[in-house]
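In response to a reviewer's request, we include the raw inputs and outputs for one of the modeled complexes. The two entities were modeled together in a single run.
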Amino acid sequence: MSAKTSRLKVVRPNHLLTVQDAGRQGAMRYGVSQSGPMDWVRFQLAIHLATDTSAAFEIGVAGAAFFAEGRVQLAVTGPGFTARISGGRTATFEPPLRLTLEEGETLTVTPGSTGMWAYVAVKGIDFGPPVLGSLATNARTGLGARDMGTAFPCPAPAFAEPALFDDPYPTGGTIGVLPGPQHHMFPETVRDRFAAEPFTLTDALDRMGYRLEGPKIEAIRHDIISDGIVEGAIQVPGNGQPIVLCADRAPTGGYPKIAIVASADRPRLTQHRPGDTIRFEWIDEAAARDRRRAIAERVTVLTPRVRNSFTSEFLAGRNLIGGVWPKETEADDALGDA
Amino acid sequence: MDWLDGAVLRGSGEDAFVVEYGEEIAPEIGRRVAALADAFDRAAPDGLVEVVPTFRSLLVLYDPERTTREALLAALPAPDDDPSHETGTHWTLPVCLEGEAAEDIAECAAGLGISEARLREIFLAGTYQVGMYGFAPGFAYLSGVDEALAIPRRPQPRPPMPAGSLILAGGMAALTSISMPTGWYVIGRTAITLFRPEAEPMVPFAVGDRIAFRAVPLDELDRLAATHDGGLTRTTS
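The model returned the following structure tokens for the whole complex.
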């Protein structure tokens, strides 16, 4: 065991790069947003693969790079993103994956043509003290924000085998919604239209909310006396164009909320990009819970990706970084190559 | 009386629901919301995540793997129907309603068709109830604004005002915890810090607390700004 504690340094912080944990609980009543990950499935997956941490870096479409001062084990998740190692070995991989960075190596996470949010979870990383019981950063109010230019200590006594995994989250399909607290303020024909016609994501989106564009969704009134807002609530201001409220939303608000996105389907929505089209589907609470349970289970029973899903890019990378990947995987590779 | 008498249960996704006592701001509605929030706090039923009281409703967040809406409501203690057992603390808070602390008071008075002096007089005669926090940590919305002071929001936001400002619009008042542009009218400033994440509790007022304001001159406000609590006092009755 080396006496020196390994550290991980963000190479060039950007405003879309934050630290998130499961979110802040118990202070919504004081005006404090919950925050937490924009994609809870890929976040939990990263935490599960890295082990020994409850928080991860959340990476937006600006990407991120991390420099290893010492040996660091981490996991990368995020649909459409790529993870590239440089500065020692050189290789590019498609997440989800778990790997160990050696001293002096850099991990660069870059968005591809799809996907909005990626996660890097680091075994044993110390993000400093929690604020109101949480390490999450609120991008809107700055609560929980920390100096991202610091080198975060990552004491970890042992390292698991590096491995690639399959993404456990299903892509495509409609987005399940449940009635929101002002569902009754939208006439039935409007509620039907909400589920029957497509909506397009505009470029007005961030960790607070996503503005949609589509058929005009009219309520009997578009201002209410403010009430509490859960994650995934879809509020409709006077222009009839819905806004999906996300992790950094204010905890209360004064527009009627027609629906709440089922938690299982929130990542599918938030990983969409401006210009993408989505469709909503009314589902009931039991169906929403079943969907969530099924996905939560899939995150915890992962097995490393099988040989036939390796890309030629991966194989080229693996050869360059010989020794990083477990022997049995290499044997499988050889078998499959025959 | 039952907790749900006259209330409507509204859906809010698979792990939350709303108990709605009305669709408007009214003292009786606010009192019931505060009492229900307090009952959930005291019962602390298994699986409850948190509650968010507002002017007219309580949002209840829970873990559906551990409990149900029905079990949560069944865990509540019987309501205390005696209106003399009013929940909430009464406070007096110094406020400066003049000069640079009250940038918009002339404009607001003109909009209401009354004099500045009359605006101050009506405002100071009132008692305000903390209806909810929202928008930002410690940002407190107040009910109890006299109808004569009900001014609509501005069509365009005005430039940012300091934290601790007293703002007025839409039949409500608010104490601001951050500097931000606003569509409300800035009619005064207090020296109170509304959010201290390291303190317990992290905000000075509970939802349901009542606040009376005491007018102070600008130099007094500066002096109070150096104190811990901005001159806030618990009112003895």
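As requested, we also summarize the result in words. DSSP finds six helices and 22 strands in chain A. Chain A has two domains: 7-167, 175-298.
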